[in-house]
Each structure stands twice: as structure tokens, then as C-alpha cells.
């Protein structure tokens, strides 16, 4: 190789390195912009004034189109940076501009969804848009780590963007569907909590002999603290009754919303949002109640948590009773569940009467 050839080759390598550096800077800028978008989305508020001619089906059509474009842009980015050579500065700039325009279109379309269409629906769409931006941000991060080389992590990140975009088809399309989804997810969480504590109780029931218990205690001194006493078991029964009443409340409210819930007026949409709000409170209170039942059991804490759960259930039933999706025909199950809650919480009070001062 002649000296001239060496100089030419070195100059080319330097130019490639400079180009790679510029492309990396472009990707860094894109990553920062996506992070900013995520932060703005987390605020959840839109300063845009609602359109008088807003049309929900048209909104879904437009949003769906932006999700498809976003999936396509992620694929282009993955392919362009999957192997050498690194895209030119102009190619990279064009690609990144396309990605940024796609993100802007998706976010802008989301922001056009008025709050009066339902805050539960809006939250559902917000989370879906945020997930796409978050996964896209991860894809850009993986590309930055291996510019022009590609990696399995890069392919995985691209697949995650696709998955989030594909989730669009499963989004609830109005506030009624969004509230039903909240109830269904909450019911699943309550069922899981109930199943775990019942399995723990049934396993504990295997130690029924006093002699057996004494043997276990002599071998493992901490065992006594890990077993329920007879008074613990007596208190557990009405608490589990409250959890089962929670399941029944969610099931009956879900059925009423599914059958009679409507999104044809602002008042009815707001009632559905109020229902979602109180339903969202049930699972944490069920968790608190169930966790306080595990040994060693603090009866005072159990009482406090059970009372809080019963308050949420009464609120949910009162709200359902005064809503548009229940009628006189629903009064029987509403009253039955109210009685079930009262019956179980009265038992809890009686069994923890030594803690009335708390």
C-alpha cells in the first residue's frame, strides 16, 4: 500500500468515526426528547380545549393509524441500525425526524380526547401511549449501546414496541368498557388474595393435635408465633366473609354496568368514573385486611383494616344504588350485600371488643 493509499484510508476511517459520533449525538437527542414526552404524559393533563365536533369513532381511527405508523418506524430504525455500515448523518436525521413526527402525532391525537369522555377511558389510553413511548425509548437506548452492530436486546426492544402497538386493538373503546376492565382486573386481584389466605389457613389446619403442636414447638420454638390461635381463627372467619362480599359486590356491579351502563350523557359518564374510583380502592383494602390475618395476628390491626374495607364496600353499594345502571329491580341484591357487610363487620367488632379504644 502506498503512502497515499494509507492517508486516504486513514481519512476515510476518521470520517466514518466522525459520522458515527454525529449519528450517536442524534440518537442521544432523540432519547432525551422521548424522555421528555414520557414526563409530560405522566402529568396526564391536557391544556387543549375540547372540540365541539369531537367524534369518538373518528378519534379511534386516527389513534389506531398513529400506532401502526409507530410500529413501522420502530421496525425501520431497528433494521437500519442492525448491521454495518452506520447510516449516514442525513439518513439517520431523516429516520429520527420520522420517528419524532410519529410520536408527536400519537401524543397529539391522545390529547384530543376530551376529559368529558371519561377519565377512566382517558387513563387507559394515556397508559397505552406511555407504554409505546417507553418501549421506543428503550429501543433507542439499545441502539445507542451498539450503534451499527445490532444485538438481541435491540431485537427484543423492537418486539416490545410491536407488542405495545398491537395492544391498541384491545383497548376499551368507551368509558363503560374502561370501567368494566377496571372491575375485572380488580376482581382478579381480590380472588388471588382470597385464594392465598385460604390455602394458608387450610395448610395450618393440618396441625390439629395438641401433642403434635407441642412437638413442633419443641423442635422449632418460633412455630407458635407462626400458627393461628383459636381466637385468631374465629376472627379470620368474618374477615374472609368481608373479602367474599367484596368479590360478590364487584361481580354484581360489573353485571349491572355491563347490562345497563351508558355513556350517552356527561352525568352518566361521570357516574361510571366514580364507580371506577371506588372499585380501585377495594383491592388495596382487601390486601391490607388479608395481610393482617397472617400470624402472628394483631387483632387491633385486623379490626382497623376490616372497618376500612367495610367502609369502601358500603360506599360502592351506595354509589351503585344511586347510579343510572341500577334500578328498583336491583334493590334485593344491593340490600343483601349490605346486610352481608354489616353482619361480618359486627362479628369483627364483637371479637375485637377489647380493642374498642383503638
Explain this structure to me?
It is a single chain. The protein is mainly α and 358 residues long. The protein has eleven helices and no strands. Helix 2 packs antiparallel against helix 3.
Outline the fold blueprint.
Elements: H1 3-43, H2 56-80, H3 89-111, H4 119-145, H5 152-166, H6 175-204, H7 210-219, H8 230-260, H9 266-291, H10 299-321, H11 331-351
- How many strand elements? 0
Largest sheet: none
Uncertain segments are: 3-16, 206-218
Bin the strand percentage. under 5%
Rounded radius of gyration (Å): 29 Å
Structural class: mainly alpha
How far from one another are the termini?
91 Å
Order of helices and strands: HHHHHHHHHHH
Number of helices: 11
User: What spatial form do the alpha-carbon principal axes imply?
Assistant: elongated
- Please give the share of residues in helix: over 70%
Task: Provide the residue-averaged pLDDT.
Answer: 88
Provide a brief overview of the structure.
With 358 residues, this protein is mainly α.
Key features?
single chain; about 350 residues; mainly alpha; about 75% helix; elongated
Amino acid at each position: 500500500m502506498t503512502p497515499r493509499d494509507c492517508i486516504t484510508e486513514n481519512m476515510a476511517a476518521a470520517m466514518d468515526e466522525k459520522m458515527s459520533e454525529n449519528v450517536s449525538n442524534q440518537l442521544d437527542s432523540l432519547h432525551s426528547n422521548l424522555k421528555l414526552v414520557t414526563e409530560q404524559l405522566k402529568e396526564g393533563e391536557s391544556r387543549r380545549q375540547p372540540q365541539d365536533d369531537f367524534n369518538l369513532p373518528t378519534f379511534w381511527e386516527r389513534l389506531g393509524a398513529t400506532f401502526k405508523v409507530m410500529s413501522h418506524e420502530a421496525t425501520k430504525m431497528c433494521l437500519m441500525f442492525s448491521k454495518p455500515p452506520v447510516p449516514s448523518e442525513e439518513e439517520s436525521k431523516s429516520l429520527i425526524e420520522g420517528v419524532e413526527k410519529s410520536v408527536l402525532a400519537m401524543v397529539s391525537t391522545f390529547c384530543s380526547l376530551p376529559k368529558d369522555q371519561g377519565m377512566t377511558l382517558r387513563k387507559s389510553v394515556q397508559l397505552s401511549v406511555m407504554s409505546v413511548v417507553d418501549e421506543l425509548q428503550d429501543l433507542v437506548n439499545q441502539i445507542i449501546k451498539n450503534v451499527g452492530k445490532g444485538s438481541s436486546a435491540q431485537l427484543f426492544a423492537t418486539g416490545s414496541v410491536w407488542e405495545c402497538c398491537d395492544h391498541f386493538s384491545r383497548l376499551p373503546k368507551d368509558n363503560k368498557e374502561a370501567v368494566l376492565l377496571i372491575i375485572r382486573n380488580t376482581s382478579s386481584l381480590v380472588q388471588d388474595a382470597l385464594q392465598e389466605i385460604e390455602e394458608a389457613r387450610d395448610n395450618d389446619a393440618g396441625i390439629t393435635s395438641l401433642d403434635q403442636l407441642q412437638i413442633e414447638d419443641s423442635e422449632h420454638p418460633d412455630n407458635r408465633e407462626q400458627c393461628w390461635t383459636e381466637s385468631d381463627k374465629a376472627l379470620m372467619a368474618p374477615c374472609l366473609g368481608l373479602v367474599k362480599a367484596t368479590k360478590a359486590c364487584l361481580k354484581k356491579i360489573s353485571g349491572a354496568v355491563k347490562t345497563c351502563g351508558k355513556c350517552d350523557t356527561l352525568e352518566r359518564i361521570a357516574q361510571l368514573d366514580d364507580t371506577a374510583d371506588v372499585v380501585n380502592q377495594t383491592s388495596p383494602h382487601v390486601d391490607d385486611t388479608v395481610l393482617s390475618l397472617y400470624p402472628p395476628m394483631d387483632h387491633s390491626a385486623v379490626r382497623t383494616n376490616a372497618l376500612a374495607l367495610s367502609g369502601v364496600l358500603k360506599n360502592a353499594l351506595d354509589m351503585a344504588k344511586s347510579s343510572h345502571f341500577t334500578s328498583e329491580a336491583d334493590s334485593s341484591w344491593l340490600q343483601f350485600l349490605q346486610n352481608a357487610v354489616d353482619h361480618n363487620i359486627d362479628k369483627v367488632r364483637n371479637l375485637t371488643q377489647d380493642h374498642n379504644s383503638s
